[in-house]
Each structure stands twice: as structure tokens, then as C-alpha cells.
Amino acid sequence: MNESRNVVVEAPIGVFDSGVGGLTVARELFEILPYEDVVYFGDVGRTPYGGRSKDIIIQFTQQDMAFMLEQKVKFVICACNSASSVALEEIKNDYDIDMIGVIEPGAAAAVKKTRNNRIGVIGTQATVSSNAYAKIIHDVNPDIKVFSLACPLFVPLAEEGYVEKKATYMIARDYLKTMQDVEVDTLILGCTHYPLLKHVISIVMGDEVTLIDSGEETARVALRKLADDNLLNPASSQRPAREGERRFYVSDVPEKFSQVATRFLGKPVDNITRVDISKY
Ligand code: DGL
Predict the structure, then answer these.
(1) Fold match between 13-101+216-279 and 103-214?
(2) pTM tops 0.85, yes or no
């Protein structure tokens, strides 16, 4: 399959994720590319991806991509760490459209930051088992030691808004003890939800450890790529510039998405439409 298509600069940027977590990436994108239109798809009906097998994650990611292409986007961001680490390399050559995931930007930023060549990666089981972050880090510098750890409870804690609770600190201390023991000086937040727990994680890890937010790094890479490829919407240089239009699609009822999105984005979202992803 090779989906050939013309790229239109005014077209929206597509962002997809296993659910609501990718909004932490979208949030960064809205911030640095305010005049771009964005179509977001959250596979809330089949979330989470992080504990699923490779075959299923690939199949879901292909369906998510098919939906993105139907929206005639000009560029795609796979905001989900689990899909980026397990599926992206397998499928990206099947599409005639530029797409990026969140792994390379996060890994590149961590390599630049580390001073003691000891980097920690926390993420879902799928991301950790894939070893995707470590592979990219070792391509750049084989001497860096990478320590990976799955922290699955962080996802529901972030979704439920359990951010500054005692229980969250207890769980974070328990999970992150191994990262402290191996003395990483840089820790990659390798899951969409973890930036919401950044404060807790930074208190537990201490000031000396730099936290890398893959979402933030990915938004920066997207900006650079679009600029290099002359794909920025010309509306951004017109005055008065028009604010980008944001459309949200989900694969189950929108109510929960809407609640969590308000917390993730810091303001309510409207424009949420339900789609049947099984058709793709
Ligand atoms: N979006 C997923 C990730 O970044 C977290 C939630 C899930 O497991 O689907 O890995």
C-alpha cells in the first residue's frame, strides 16, 4: 500500500494517540504553531495501547493513520509513545506523507542533556519492551547507559487528576527508586501522560535530574520540519493572523474525553465528533 497524495500547505496537521494523552503533545503544538489547523484523533474506545501486543498496536495504528489521511492532513504526528515505539518504523514507508513519532525527539534531547551518560526512560510496558528509546540513543552514542522502567499506574493517575495526592507520591517513590539507584542524570518521560505528573516526578527524582518531555520536543521538531519543507500555513504570516481551527475526533462517547481534555489543556474543548474507527 502506498497512499500517494498532494500536500496542501493550508491543510491541517494530524495528531493521533491511543486516547486523551496525546493532548499533552497537541498542547505544545497549539502553543508553538497557533495558526495551524489541527485534527486530533484519540482512540478512546480502545485505549490503553500500552499493555497490548505488537500486532494489535500495529493494526490500530494503521487504522488511526487511515483516518488521518481521510482528513487530508499535510503532516502527521503519532503522539502515542507506545504506537511510536512499536508500530511507526513498521508502517511509515507505507504512506506518502511525512510523519513523526515522539521517540526520536525525546531521545535526541536526552542525549544532548546528559552529563554522566546515564539516561532513564519511563513509559508503558509496550514502549519499554520495544527498547525503542535505547536503540536511538545508542545509534548516537553507544557509550550511554540506558535504564528503562514501565510505570503503568501513572496513566490512570494522570487521567483521574490524581496529581498532587499522597498516593501518587508513594507510587512515584516506589517506581522511581530504581532510577535513583542507578544514578541517571536525565529521565525521559516516555509516555503521553507523564508530563502531567512532572512536578511529582521532579520532586521524587530531585533537582539534579533533568526531565525530558517528549511531547515538547516533538512539537519543536514538527515546527522545524514544516518550516524546512515550506509547509507552514501562509495564514501564520498574514496580519491579523487567524487562530488555527482545532477539531477533535474520538472512537467512543466524547464525554469522558471532554472532561479529561479540559484538565489536560487547561480549558474546555468543543468540536468533538465520534467516529467508528473499525471502518478504517
Ligand atoms: N498514549 C500512551 C503512550 O504514550 C499511553 C496510554 C496507553 O497505554 O495507551 O504510550
Answers:
(1) yes
(2) yes
The cell numbers describing 239, all together, are 496580519
Rounded distance from Cα 29 to ligand 1 centre (Å): 18
| Domain 103-214 fold | Rossmann fold (3.40.50)
Spacing, Cα 234 to ligand 1 middle (Å): 33
Tens of pLDDT, residue by residue over 151-179, are 999 999 999 999 999 999 999 999 999 99
CATH number for the domain running over 13-101+216-279: 3.40.50.1860
Is a pLDDT exceeding 60 seen at residue 2?
A: no
Site residues for ligand 1, CB cut-off 6 Å: 17-19, 21, 47-50, 80-82, 123-124, 127, 155, 191-193
More confident residue, 271 or 123: 123
CA 157 – CA 197 distance, rounded (Å): 9
Return the C-alpha cell found at 73: 492532513
Strands (E), the chain: 13-17, 38-42, 75-78, 99-100, 118-123, 145-150, 186-190, 210-213, 246-250, 272-274
Nearest CA to ligand 1 atom 9: 48
**Domains of the chain, residue spans:** 13-101+216-279, 103-214
Q: Cβ contacts of residue 94 below 8 Å, gap of 6+?
A: 1, 2, 3, 62
Euclidean distance between CA atoms 244 and 33, whole angstroms: 8
